[in-house]
Design brief:
Layout lengths: L4 E4 L18 H12 L8 E4 L6 H4 L5 H11 L23 H20 L5 E4 L20 H11 L4 E5 L6 H7 L5 E8 L23 E6 L5 H19 L3 E5 L17 H14 L3 E5 L6 H15 L10 H7 L14 H21 L10
Parallel strand pairs: 1-2, 1-3, 3-8, 4-5, 4-7, 5-6, 7-8
Helix pairs in contact: 1-9, 4-5, 7-8, 7-11, 8-9
Length: 377
Amino acid sequence: MTRRAVFVYDDRMSAHVLSDAHPMKPVRLKYTRQLLESYGAFDGRTSSLERPRDATKDEIGWFHSRDYVEGVEAIGAGLGGVNPARFNFGPGDNPAYPGIYDAAMLSTGASLTAAEMLAAGYADAAFNVSGGLHHAMPDHAYGFCVFNDPVIAIHRLLQEGMRVAYVDIDCHHGDGVQHAFYSTDRVLTISVHESGAFLFPGTGFVQETGAGAGRGYSVNLPLYPYTSDEVYLWAMEQTVTPLIEAFAPDVLVTQLGIDSHYRDPITHLALTVQGFGRAVSTLAAAAPSKWLALGGGGYDLQAVARAWTMAYGILSEQEFPNDIPESYRRAHGVDSLRDPDVLRIDGKTVSDSRTFAEASVQTIHRLIFPTHGIRTA
């Protein structure tokens, strides 16, 4: 059966600027939409571009405290009387920029729009590239993230009685989502990321497996710096695929951060765009009939546009040619959707990354698989 896919987007998502020096550039979302349009991605009957709505305060309140939401609103409007530092805003990762509240309400509303389209049967797969802001905590901003749209979208799907599996392939650990569902077995959370021993936020170790009813339902697959396509994909196939199949969700929610790319300026994994695409294809093969995809990290702007274009092609069952269409190539100087086939990574790094991944996989098999009745050889 052909999958009906929607790409949830509005140019307002790309209009704000966190700061001139900040690595998070919202214009990357616009570039992704432009590249998809150059490929004619929304021209068919089973793929469309859909506009989002804003989230409501009540919806944001499903996860975030009232004081925090009202504080972000006041900061975004430039009102006095609120100390931004109280909510972890300030120089560095989380600047308090003008319009911050409106931008956060829109990106969260876009994830809710996507979730509601799935729940209503309007779409089988939906992609909100402005979403995936997985670090935000109930009462403070964290890691470039203001409101935690994955948590809020998952909550909306739970209201529909759906069983939800969440898989996060951002280079950084999905700590805010893990925090939200750490004590429940209604949501399976899986995070594949560079180890917290080397990268922010310093969490996401294999031993973080959930608490109470949620024990065995928080899964972490940490990886070594400069892990490349082959090792990354092997580790996913050994863990993520069998866990999704055993959990049997009604809907798969994926955070598709592409800061795992080898050219990303603030991380240390070594995926290619086509390796990322193969990871997304692995998720597609395991996905149930409903699939909500969200954006996330990614700080090499053209790697982001190319990778998320490929991801939407997989979601919408379209295969895009490797040659970038002329209109986009002329504007951005990018020739190829995929990266060069071979990256030069020294043998010791390859060996170390494989050994590290094997240890993570073995520990997941020992600590997590028994909870889900999965046997290993």
